[in-house]
Amino acid sequence: MTEPLAPEVLDDWVAEAADLLGIDPADVPVAEVLDLARRAAHGVARPAAPVTTFLLGLAVGAGRPDDLTSLSRRLGDAAEAHMDES
């Protein structure tokens, strides 16, 4: 079994990836994205986690009028409702 990674590892990765993409790492809502990923993984299926967070990114990048928090909440609620329907 692998050891859990220190939070600094994720912070370092976010900074590196953000730099590569030309965005400010401070604009990356890590906790919110991880929460959405958790809700999608448990409500739908584990592979839904990265797909759902990617969909959120596409919606935000496309300039959806909803804010990220609202969109994330709606997607998370939909994932949990999916679990209840299954």
Which ranges are low-confidence, i.e. pLDDT below 50, for 5 or more consecutive residues?
Answer: none
Question: How many strands in all?
Answer: 0
Distance between the termini: 31 Å
Question: Which overall shape is indicated by the principal axes computed on the Cα atoms?
Answer: flat
Write the layout of secondary structure elements.
Elements: H1 7-21, H2 30-43, H3 48-61, H4 68-85
Helix pairs in contact: 2-3, 2-4, 3-4
Defining key terms:
single chain, mainly alpha, 0% strand
Task: Explain how this protein is built.
- There is one protein chain.
- The chain has 86 residues and is mostly helical.
- It contains four helices and no strands.
- 71% of the residues lie in helices and 0% in strands.
- Helix 2 crosses helix 3, helix 2 (30-43) packs parallel to helix 4 and helix 3 (48-61) packs antiparallel against helix 4.
- The longest helix is centred in the C-terminal third of the chain and has 18 residues, at 68-85.
Question: What's this entry about, in short?
Answer:
With 86 residues, this protein is mainly alpha-helical. The chain has helices at 7-21, 30-43, 48-61, 68-85.
